From TrEMBL:
InterPro entries on file: Transposase-MT_Hybrid
Annotated organism of origin: Cryptotermes secundus
Domain of life per record: Eukaryota
Protein name: Mos1 transposase HTH domain-containing protein
Keywords: Signal
Signal peptide extent: 1-25
Length: 131
């Protein structure tokens, strides 16, 4: 099943029909929902600018033009997944030894500021120390 008869396309058409019938914009759409709409409208032959205008009409003015263009380009090069890829994030470097050293510094002088703690234990970020 390909083209307009595939289950995903039928669901997208039904979704868009419901969206166009709504009098007000959708509040707090999920990212993959917006990505699915971008993918569907891309397959229908719309340009990124037209897709952006459609998204604004049913999601409101907060739709970022650059993000629409980025996802449009990704679908141009045959991306099919509408979910964001998993990111590794920043790895944690805080070990038990670092925590113990920090606790000892605090116990030795409870009047230490965050900056002073950071100078004594630069491995820990200021945001971790203040939390």
């Amino acid at each position: 099943m390909t083209g307009l008869s595939s289950p995903a396309t039928v669901m997208a058409i039904l979704f868009l029909q419901c969206v166009f019938k709504m009098a007000m914009s959708i509040q707090n759409p999920t990212r993959c929902e917006a990505h699915a709409v971008i993918r569907f409208l891309h397959v229908k032959g719309n340009t990124a600018a037209v897709i952006h205008r459609h998204l604004i009409s049913f999601y409101g003015e907060d739709v970022n033009r650059q993000n629409v263009a980025r996802w449009y380009c990704q679908f141009e090069v045959r991306r099919s997944d509408v979910h964001d890829e998993i990111r590794s994030g920043r790895p944690s470097v805080v070990t038990d030894e670092i925590i113990q050293k920090n606790d000892e510094n605090i116990c030795a002088d409870r009047r230490l500021t965050i900056d002073e703690l950071h100078l004594q234990c630069p491995e820990m970020a200021r945001t971790v120390l203040s939390g």
